[in-house]
Structures are given as C-alpha cells and as structure tokens.
Amino acid sequence: MNALPRFLLPFLLLPGLLALGACREEKKEPPALPVKVVKYTVVGDMSSGQARRISGVVETDDKTEIAFQIGGRVETVNVTMGDHVKEGQVLATLEKKDYELAYKAAESRVASSNALLSEKSEILKRQRALFKKGHVAQAAVDTANSQYEAARSNYQVTLAERDVARLDYDRTVLYAPYDGQISERLVEPFMEVNPTQTLFRIQRPTALTVRALVPETIIRQIAIGENVEVTFPTLTGATVKGTITEIGALAQQGNAFPVKVLLRKTAQYDIRVGMTAQVFFMVENYKATDKVAYLIPISALDLRGQEDLDNKTAAEKTGRHGRVFVIDPATMTLRPREVAIGNIKDNKIEVIGGLEAGEKIVTAGVPFLEPGQKVGLWEPVVQPSEGAAR
Q1: 354-384 confidence digits (pLDDT tens)
Q2: Separation in Å, CA 294 to CA 51, 227, 229, 276
Q3: pLDDT of 96 over the 80 cut
Q4: Residues 199-246: pLDDT tens digits?
Q5: Nearest to 36, CA basis, from 380, 376, 381
Q6: Rounded-to-integer distance, Cα 121 and Cα 133, Å
Q7: Which of the two residues, 334 and 342, has the higher pLDDT score?
Q8: 328, 371 Cβ separation under 8 angstroms
Q9: In terms of DSSP bridges, do strands 375-377 and 36-38 run parallel, antiparallel, or are they unpaired?
Q10: What whole-number distance in Å separates Cα of residue 106 and Cα of residue 166?
Q11: Coil vs helix vs strand at 351
Q12: Using one digit for the tens of pLDDT, what is the confidence trace for 185-200?
C-alpha cells in the first residue's frame, strides 16, 4: 500500500482532535446558575371562603391606674408615656416640706404625751403607796388612776398620729407596682393633684389580647376556646395564634358583638397595646377539618415536572396539587414545594396544604427558575414625591 501524502495527515487527524476536545469539555463542571432577583409574596392572606377577617385592637387585661394616696403639688415626674419600668421604680414625687413638718410636729406631740404619761404614772405610784399607809383615801388613788389612763390613751393617739404622718411623708413618692410599660401619663411637674387622682396608667405586656367586633351574621359560628390566627398590618410576617376567651352577649355598634382573643407566644414580635390586628375567624366547612387555606397568586404555580420536591404528601388526600418555589431564608435558595390547591378566586388560588404562614414564595418568572438557584428579593423603588429635596 502506498503511503498517504503528508499534506493529508492534518485533515485525517482533525476529527480525532475535535472529539478529544469535546470529551474534555464534557468533563467541565456546569456553570453556576446566576443569582436572580425575584418578586415574592409572604404567605398569610387567608381565603375568605373559610375565614372572616375582622379588624381589632391590641389590649392588655393586666393594667393599673396609678395615683398618689395624698394630695399636694407634684415636684418631679420621672417617666413618660411608653417607658418601660421596673417594680419599685420611682414614677413621681410630691413636695415634701408640708408633710415633713407634719411628721416633726407629730413626733413632738409623742414626746410631750410620753412625758405626761410618765408624770401621771409616778403620781399613781405615790398615791397607791400613801393609801397603803392610810395617809390618803381611796378617792385620791382613783383620781390618780383616771389621770394616768387619760395620759396613756393620749399617748397612744399621738403614736398613731405620728405613724400616719410618717406614712403620708412616705407617700410623697410614687412607685411602680410591677414591671410594665407606661401606657398613659396624665401629670406634669408643679400640678396640684388630689388623692386617688389618676396620674399614670401602667400595663403588663405579658398578657396581650385583641378586642374585635364580630358581626351578628357569624357570631353564632364561633365559640369560646376556638383557635384563631392573628396578623398585624404594621408587622410584616407577624402571625400569631390566639384563643377566643370572651364573646359578648350584648351587641354594640353596627349590630356587632365584642369578642376577646388571647394571644399566645408573642415575645418574638414587637406587638404593642393599641396596634391594629386582623383576626381570622374560621366560620365555614374548613373549621371542622382544622385546615387553613391561604390565597396565593396563580402565577406562583409551577406547571413543570415535580421531581426534587421538599414534600410530596400535601396533596395525598386531594387530587389537585401544584408546585411552588419557597425561598429558604437561611441560604436564599429556591426549594420546590408541592401544595394541595383548592378553588380559584379573583386571580388567586387557594392553597389548603403544604404552606405555612410567614413563608416567602416566588410569584413571577417561575418557569425560568430552577431548584437550588440562589435568588435576591425584589423590592419596589420608592420614587421621591414632587417638590422633595434632591
């Protein structure tokens, strides 16, 4: 066989070199998915088909009105509304001069009455000794004894007056009765105040409740002891459990009945008395099944394959299910989650299983995302108002 011309060798070797290069390229690690900024929503909007959202106000059952037990002119005020105080902390003081003088006068009367008592006691002793010797009649002894008893009674009265004067002097300082927060301050320095006049209102924020007015149309569908969910418009992601503790028997404004809900496990949130709260009362068929249905945008559903899901049990009891991307707050990565879905309402869909209140889910661009992909959270840009300084 004749040897091939040398100029043909590069053309014969080229396919092999290309194949070798392709093999080497196949062994490279796939490029990391880019960090994508995504629109999201916080799970918490409950379906009106199974719950009624009623606005209420945060209150506390543990509250006290604070007042001086004596009157006078206020000298100092040491706290203001919103301050947190400790038990025994000084809240305010009255001018002490008048009460100090009254106490000193009472001490002086005690000293005088004590001296008189000692004198009458000596006289009684002498009269008894003379009576034994027959130098005085029984009448003299009786007179001395009466004078002694009168002096002793007067001494006891002056002791009591001194104790009262001392107590009044001590009452010129107003102390906090327990650890709490000043919810209202009604006093200023140099004010003249009367005994028992309310100067402060203090609350203990460990027993928070929500007071809501429930319409007559659903008042018969709730009961004391039922659990509810409560959210707060000014606290993003704050959802706490509550228990109905009171249902009023007398309708108030708008034929609505007052209902009180005791909040549980509120320490992680900055919930304050007077805040607006949204109470979700379970009033229809979901109440019997103890399910909670959340409304999410339809655009949050991923219609692609459902491999690599976090859970595959949410829809076992229903034939309707879908997938959403939950944002892991620790790693800011996407985790696919299967959810059981219900009805469609106003471009939103009910999720009756698989999600928890407070979780963040992606609501736009879902078909272009992948499990495990790192993401950032999109926040709307606030445009400065006209006339604002630039």
Answers
A1: 888 889 999 998 988 999 999 999 887 655 5
A2: 10, 17, 12, 21
A3: yes
A4: 999 987 667 899 999 988 888 888 888 888 899 988 887 888 899 999
A5: 376
A6: 19
A7: 334
A8: no
A9: parallel
A10: 9
A11: strand
A12: 999 999 999 999 999 9
Residue bearing tokens 């005088």 = 112
Sheet holding 72-77, edge to edge: 173-175, 90-94, 72-77, 192-193
With tokens 């009269």, the residue in question is: 127
Q: Which two tokens stand for residue 376?
A: 């950032």
The single-letter code of the amino acid at 3 is A
Q: Is 4 helix (H, G, I), strand (E, B) or coil?
A: coil
Could you identify the residue written with the tokens 């109470």?
A: 279
Decide: helix, strand or coil at residue 298: helix
163 is written with which tokens?
Answer: 């104790």
pTM over 0.70: no
Q: Which domains does the chain have, with CATH numbers?
A: 33-47+291-378 (2.40.420.20), 51-61+207-283 (2.40.30.170), 65-92+179-200 (no CATH), 97-170 (1.10.287)
As a three-state string, the secondary structure of 80-122 is CCCCEECCCCEEEEECCHHHHHHHHHHHHHHHHHHHHHHHHHH
